[in-house]
Amino acid sequence: MATSDRSIFEKFSNWATKFTGSSYAFLGAVAIVVIWAVSGPVFNYSETWQLVINTGTTIITFLMVFLIQKSQNKDSKAIQIKLNELIAANEKASNRIVDIEDLTEKELDQLHCYYEKLADFAEEDEDIHASHSIDAAKRNQDYKHEFFKRKHEEWLSKQKK
After folding, report:
1. Is-contact 70 13, C-beta < 8 A?
2. At CB < 8 A and 24+ separation, what contacts does 90-96 make?
3. Can you give the pLDDT at residue 69?
4. Distance (Å, rounded) from C-alpha 16 to C-alpha 19?
5. Of 61, 68, 57, nearest to 18 (Cα)?
6. 158 or 92: whose pLDDT is higher?
7. What dihedral do alpha carbons 125, 127, 133, 136 form, nearest 10°?
């Protein structure tokens, strides 16, 4: 994507995110606090002196929350796209996992439990190259169901004779 397509806010937020995460920003913040602390005796540690640092830090914190959230949203979206590409490119990966970030917390917890089970299967498996995926588990479940159904039907037919 060309940089000319970015809005002014996008450019500013990218710059501000990089700057505020730098050592220069940290050193600047430390310098401001030191200057404020040293100026305490000059202002007789007045309420106005305290109000300056309280108000300043509150405003900066308030604005940084939105800046950090924007940065997190962008990073999260980029990571999701990269993960989706890896899932799509891997022939053994289940495409059902693409875009699971849209699921509810409860649905994600269910998937998490399922993958914990897959991890347990993988630990028990002697072949480290064996694949345990949702699709493989579904095929296995379908096979078991069909096998049970066939055996049950055989049992029923024997009972009728």
Report:
1. yes
2. 92/131, 92/133, 93/133, 94/133, 94/134, 94/135, 96/134, 96/135
3. 94
4. 5
5. 68
6. 158
7. -90
Please provide the size of the chain in residues: 161
Q: Tokens 């190259």 map to which residue?
A: 129
* H or E stretch at 6: none
Distances (CA, A) of 83 to 37, 56, 88, 100: 48, 40, 9, 11
Average pLDDT score over the chain:
85
Rounded CA-CA distance 156/144 in Å is: 18
The structure tokens 């002196």 sit at 49
Per-residue pLDDT reduced to its tens digit, 78-114: 998 998 888 888 777 777 788 888 889 998 898 888 8
Query: What's the chain's Rg over C-alpha atoms?
Result: 29
Extents of the domains making up the chain: 1-89, 96-161
